[in-house]
Amino acid sequence: MVLADHVLIRLLAGLRLPPSDYVVTGSGPLLAYGLKTTVHDLDLVARGEAWDRALTHGQVSLAASGLGLRVELFDGCIEVFDHWLAGSGDVDAMIDAAVRVEGIPFMSLGDTLRWKRGLGRAKDLADIALIEHRLTVPVR
């Protein structure tokens, strides 16, 4: 699958966010690396101009995690945060460490694995297994 053909990626592209000011987190990296063909939404962490643009497209509210703010776009298909989950580190460092896939900045699989493990949520177990397998088995 070409990433640009995915409906959520098309919605993201339409926002015209500067790639240097956001990173796709959550399960989005599994989509980018071909570990999943479907995800229900995209989670972004944004700063600067990307955050400012997100604010023009939706209402800001407190993030469910209690850490920072969130803008819900396209009926929740894309959520933009000004912070990420506890223990994820500095927002600037997260964004600066993004890996570009088809020009879109995604959190690396290693970083995604670390935070999913750290949360210990049952809903992340399948994602953890997929990432662990990809990181230990060479891609052909």
TrEMBL record:
InterPro entries: NT_sf
Annotated source species: Actinospica durhamensis
Protein name: Nucleotidyltransferase family protein
